[in-house]
Amino acid sequence: MRKPLIAGNWKMFKSLDQVGTFADDFISRVLDIENTDILLCPPYVYVQSLAQACEGTQVMVGAQNVFWEDEGAYTGEISALMLKSIGAEYSIIGHSERRQFFHETDETVNKRLFASIKADLVPIVCVGETLNDRESGKTFDIIGSQIRQGLEGLGSDMADTLVIAYEPVWAIGTGKTATPQMAQEVHAYIRTVITGLFGKEIAQNMRILYGGSVKGDNIDSLMAQDDIDGALVGGASLDAASFERILRFKG
Ligand code: PGA
């Protein structure tokens, strides 16, 4: 059985004060939730204070990106080792906003993936098609190639903690969600690709998250799908009550 993972991606939102207020409120709301892994990914600058606020609870903290070198003259970058040392346990890699605005490619996704694993951060590798890809019937080709290239060189021994997030680009921040059936179809395809790469056991154990306008009113039907093992939540994770509702999904 795959334990669901629900991750909040705060993107570039919140002040330090707001992070503190959120943590106080949120942690007390979700302390009893045991059957789902809970992850918060704030901007880098809040990883340490949020990890401290969550210490002793089951709420985990992750980063929204990592750089692939351990250290060096790379002005403005943050390494996976640094993030691990301040309390991060996960890292989001290859988010479509990184691909769209910061020239992220499957090749750089691959470098960040290895750096994360080396630093003992659990990678959440994001894949997803654009509206144009979908309308021209290329969804599976695009997703398949993002996975094969993003995970290139990864051995089965390193793949067991990996998480994949399917985020159709046209559904992120737009209010348009893939229907549960559309999402399930792609998740099942991703599991087939993973089976081809790493074998059935790893594929059956791998968590595949859905992301793109996940809210309290669509999480239940998404989580009811066989191959949807959690969610990567942007906007609706910024508010403690709305994120709590998502964590208390039924399905
Ligand atoms: P959204 O973002 O929930 O605001 O659509 C999801 C994401 O980008 O991970």
In brief:
The chain is of the alpha/beta class. The chain has helices spanning 16-30, 47-54, 80-85, 96-101, 106-118, 131-135, 139-150, 156-159, 180-198, 200-205, 219-223, 240-247, and strands spanning 5-9, 37-41, 59-63, 90-93, 122-127, 163-166, 207-211, 230-233.
List descriptors.
251 residues, alpha/beta, TIM Barrel, 8-stranded parallel β-barrel, 12 helices, globular, binds 2-phosphoglycolic acid
Would you give an account of this structure?
The structure is a single chain. The chain has about 250 residues and is an alpha/beta fold. The chain has one domain (about 5-245): Aldolase class I (TIM Barrel, Alpha-Beta Barrel). Helices cover about 45% and strands about 15% of the residues. The protein contains 12 helices and 8 strands. Strands 1-2-3-4-5-6-7-8 form an 8-stranded parallel beta barrel, surrounded by 5 helices. Helix 2 (about 45-55) links the parallel strand 2 and strand 3. Helix 1 (about 15-30) packs parallel to helix 2. The mean pLDDT is about 95. 2-phosphoglycolic acid (PGA) binds near residues 172, 173, 233 and 234.
What is the topology?
Elements lengths: L4 E5 L6 H15 L6 E5 L5 H8 L4 E5 L16 H6 L4 E4 L2 H6 L4 H13 L3 E6 L3 H5 L3 H12 L5 H4 L3 E4 L13 H19 L1 H6 L1 E5 L7 H5 L6 E4 L6 H8 L4
Parallel strand pairs: 1-2, 1-8, 2-3, 3-4, 4-5, 5-6, 6-7, 7-8
Helix pairs in contact: 1-2, 1-12, 5-7, 7-9
The site of 2-phosphoglycolic acid has 13 residues, from strand 8.
